[in-house]
Structures are given as structure tokens and as C-alpha cells.
């Protein structure tokens, strides 16, 4: 049952990437927290090597609600050639998670998966990243067994959510290989 849930998650990765895109997948993998949105992260910090940029979660919420990117995000969207409507859709598009996958997050195998994911998404110190990631996914999916990127940011329990772009690239390659193995069997 647990292996089938993890297998189902691996099979869903290409769908998540195609629906949410690289940035979304990056933030999806970074989330955590059994808290209400009022106690959410204040910033998402993206790092790539020595480069780092912080974005207020409130600015993502504004973009999602209005379709208009605040200046902190607008520059980077323009630089990346991403239309605000595409970014808005990315923040609000739901991804369904099976009950089997959600149950597997509380097991040893679920912890192994989460440990791999915290190479990409973590707290500023790295401590507490597995419980944060687990609880964010569970909290975001608790009402309807689906999550949105914005919900994951809103439930992150620390003031900052760090996303390592270098490790994300490596993880995406690994997941692509696992997807090929799962589809081939």
C-alpha cells in the first residue's frame, strides 16, 4: 500500500510539473505546517548557488486574487517571460493527492521521500524540515484531498521557506528517471 502510494506520487510528478511549471513544483516541494493561514510563512526564499531572492507570501496571494503581480514579483515574471495570468493559474491550480499517498507520509517510507525533498525545500537552518513539509501537505489537503501552490505557501510554519534551485534541478532529473522506471514496469 505504501509503495503504491509512493509510486502514484512519482507518476504524478510530470502532471504536477506540466500543470504548475518549474517554479510551482519547486514551491510545492517546499511547503509544510499544521497551522492556519494567519500563522503562515512571510517569505519564500529562492536560492540558486550564491544567488538568493526573497518574495513575500502576501505578494503571491495578491497575484492569485487579482491577477496583478506586485512589483516584487513582476520584475522576475517579466525576466522569465511568464505572463501574470499563467502565474495566477499556477498558484490556484489544484493537484489531487490520493488518501494512500497522504497516509504514506506518516510512515518510514514517507519519511524517506520527505528527506529527499528537503534537499530542495527546507527551513533556514534545515532543522524541522521533514515535519514541516509533511504537515503542510496534510493540512493543505485535509479538506478536499487536493493542494494548491498558494495553500502550501500559506500553511508553511516558519517565517521563511527556503527553496534550493540547484538541488531542485537534480531532484527533477531523479524523479524523471523514477517516472521512467515506474512506467516501464
Give me some keywords for this one.
disordered N terminus, 9 helices, single chain, alpha+beta, 185 residues
Give a short overview.
The chain is built from 9 helices and 6 strands.
What does this protein look like?
The protein has about 180 residues and is α+β, with helices and mostly antiparallel strands. The chain is built from 9 helices and 6 strands. The strands form 2 sheets. Strands 2-1-6-4 form a 4-stranded mixed beta sheet. The protein has a two-stranded antiparallel sheet with strand order 3-5. α1 (about 1-30) packs antiparallel against α9.
Strand and helix map with partners:
Blueprint: H1 2-28, E1 43-48, E2 51-56, H2 57-66, H3 71-80, H4 84-92, E3 95-96, H5 99-104, H6 108-117, E4 121-122, H7 129-141, E5 146-147, H8 149-154, E6 160-164, H9 165-184
Parallel strand pairs: 1-6
Antiparallel strand pairs: 1-2, 3-5, 4-6
Amino acid at each position: 500500500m505504501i509503495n503504491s502510494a509512493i509510486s502514484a506520487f512519482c507518476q504524478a510528478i510530470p502532471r504536477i510539473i506540466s500543470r504548475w511549471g518549474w517554479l510551482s513544483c519547486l514551491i510545492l516541494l517546499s511547503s509544510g505546517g499544521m497551522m492556519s493561514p494567519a500563522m503562515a510563512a512571510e517569505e519564500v526564499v529562492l536560492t540558486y548557488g550564491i544567488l538568493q531572492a526573497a518574495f513575500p507570501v502576501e505578494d503571491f496571494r495578491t497575484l492569485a486574487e487579482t491577477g496583478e503581480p506586485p512589483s516584487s514579483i513582476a520584475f522576475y515574471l517579466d525576466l522569465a517571460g511568464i505572463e501574470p495570468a499563467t502565474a495566477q493559474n499556477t498558484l490556484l491550480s489544484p493537484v489531487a493527492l490520493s488518501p494512500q499517498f497522504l497516509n504514506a507520509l506518516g510512515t518510514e517510507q514517507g519519511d524517506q521521500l520527505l528527506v529527499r525533498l528537503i534537499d530542495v525545500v527546507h527551513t533556514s537552518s534545515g532543522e524541522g524540515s521533514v515535519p514541516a513539509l509533511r504537515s503542510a501537505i496534510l493540512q493543505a489537503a485535509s479538506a478536499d484531498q487536493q493542494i494548491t501552490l498558494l495553500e502550501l505557501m500559506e500553511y508553511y510554519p516558519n517565517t521563511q521557506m527556503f527553496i534550493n534551485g540547484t538541488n531542485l534541478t537534480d531532484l527533477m532529473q531523479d524523479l524523471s528517471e523514477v517516472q521512467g522506471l515506474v512506467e516501464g514496469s
